[in-house]
Fold these 2 entries.
Entry 1:
Amino acid sequence: MDKIIINGGKKLKGEIKISGSKNSGLPILFAALLTDEPVTITNVPSLADIDTTVAFLNYIGKKAVKKGNTVKASPSEQYKHVAPYDLVRKMRASVLIMGPLLARLGKVDVSLPGGCAIGARPIDIHLEAFKKLGVEITVEGGFVKTHAKNGLIGADIEFRFPSVGATENIMLAAVLAKGKTRIINAAKEPEIVDLQDILNKMGAKVKGAGTKIITIEGVEKLHGATHKVIPDRIEAATYLIAAALTKGEVLLKSVVPEHIQIVIDKLEKAGMEIVSKKDTVFAKWVKELKPDNIATEVYPGFPTDVQAQWMALMSLTKGKSTITENVFENRFMHVAELQRFGANLAVSGNTVTVTGVEKLSGAPVMVSDLRAGAALVLAALCAEGESVVTRIYHLDRGYERLEKKLKQLGADIKRVR
Ligand code: EPU
């Protein structure tokens, strides 16, 4: 298994281009199932989860090929309606197969995704919503079996929590349902707006993405489209924090600053100098950073996907801060590993109290999940001495050319087998 070796202490300096968003690219790839006409998606990041999804589409019967950062999906064969365990277990976003296949076939059997390192992550919100659209659901032999005998019928659906995946799944289904669907208490993340954009390019009638209520008028058929995936806001935030931790200066290109406004605001408050322009963000360390509390919330709140990286940053500020995780119930797997670098962290329920230390020291650490892994790499970049980061396949799921980009910024980092 590959590992990353980092010799910490190098100031990061330079510019990098932010890749296309993983969490936007995944639902958009699944949207290709909704039409038999060609769909071309550009700015698709080269990541393990994207490869898994492309393989999944091909398994289901949709011919899709990824070349560079472009995926072309062409007219399809008859779709299969069963998503087996081997495909679903690799990636939780596989449940997004449900919406498009219910829309096209009226049925789909999906292996239950199960829990993962960051929590139980049930899919009850998805399933309750599908029931409202007229879907019968049974659980048998580890599979969720779904069937819309009379086709999907539009309905008003109110989510108990604005789940990102459930919002996407219902949008993917309702675009071809009979009549009007309203998702109330929908997720407002930029990835939802991106999905609305491609669906509308395909001839769907979706409005309201980015607000609490999304309205979808079902149409008979969708057609082909070409779409460019939005920049990855979590990758962007991660590199800004890398600049802060290494006392460096970094120019990010191809970003939407507004998508990471809360992270920019927090970094500025901590003492970073930041200049945002239309599609660039420049961040420069100018003075010792001050601690600041964060609590993760749904968009536009502080992203749960940046919580671990923020913890690494706070570990080196003078004084105390708290980090509260409100989105996932078990997303502190990085705490024990950050402690190996010498971070002073105390967990109590869903809050970690960070007491800043003078320095971190290089250590062997193991990645438990994607964003925990990002936090460990960040800590290693500013720790004294060598760190060996193992189980980096988690990082390959979400950070395109991570060590190459960091090297371009001057980090002493290498991947070894
Ligand atoms: N939840 C339920 N029931 C459901 C669905 C969700 O209880 O039916 C709970 C989850 O267990 C979790 C919370 O609601 O505690 C949020 O889940 P949500 O459905 O919003 O998240 P997701 O769609 O599973 C996406 C991203 C995650 C990101 C979250 C929150 C993708 C592929 N994944 O997950 O990204 O953390 O939204 O913003 O879009 C990552 O990139 O590292 C990552 C984990």
Entry 2:
Amino acid sequence: MATDSWLNETLYPDWGQRFLVKRELARVQSAFQDIVIFESTSHGRVMVLDGVIQITEADEFVYQEMLAHVPLLAHGAAANVLIIGAGDGGVLRRVLQHRSVRCAVMVEIDGEVIRLSKEFLPGIAGDAWNDTRAEVIVGDGIDYVKRAPDTAFDAIIVDSTDPIGVSEVLFTDEFYANCARILTPRGLVVNQCGVPFMQADELRDTSARRAAFFSHVTAYVAAVPTYVGGFMTLGWAAKDATLAATGVAEIRRRAETAGILGTTRYWTPEIHVGAFNLPPYIAEALAPAAAIIERR
Ligand code: SAM
């Protein structure tokens, strides 16, 4: 009799989630990481990198909508967008939904993630790969930002793995200094900053680093079911402190103009504005960054 096979996430040594595996679809050791894609009985198809859940078909909309729509609608007229990581293509699809976007450059270090996502997770990116506004580059995000020209982008969206291994460079002073240089005066950068209940250092350290290069550093939250441990934080660093304070009515007006209103399952103008209201156990991680900006 076939025994059940389970995929146990190995993000935390002493706690975690597991998935009942219906069928394994791909297992590849790439030059950068161990990639597994499987069919689950509970969440559709799932991608795992080095034992850590990256994306599931069932709940990817939560994270991708909040990572793409919040910064672009807060900016209000983003034309040139840089996406780093995000090899599944979900952020690219959401960014290209915005009518204001003229060019979306995506820089993913691992070509195998893109290839396997196209083959086994086609619904995540849909036809974003073929959009003439999209430029997809297989390369290291730090090299790209070092070479990019000054003030080339309105927004930078970093959808990377946690700050260990290949993505460690995306959480460094050098990376953020270059992000500030290649962003326009109304430009901003957002990135996945982990689940503070389990990973508070990630938000604290990232925010403190960015406070040296940006005048407004904060975070917003999203409840992503398979990023276990409560709220996921999306780190925010902007040159203009008014962007994060844009009200519901104005965000709704912009979403209408952008062609986003009514197309989402998690993001709404109210959720957008409310997501910046942080519970104290998360807000306290931003104190070092606030102190650095105060002293500047
Ligand atoms: N949403 C997921 C999360 O929050 O954990 C991340 C998903 S996405 C698939 C992460 C991608 O970042 C991976 O495909 C990985 O290869 C890519 N990545 C990691 N380090 C990178 C780097 N230095 N430059 C570009 N892409 C990188």
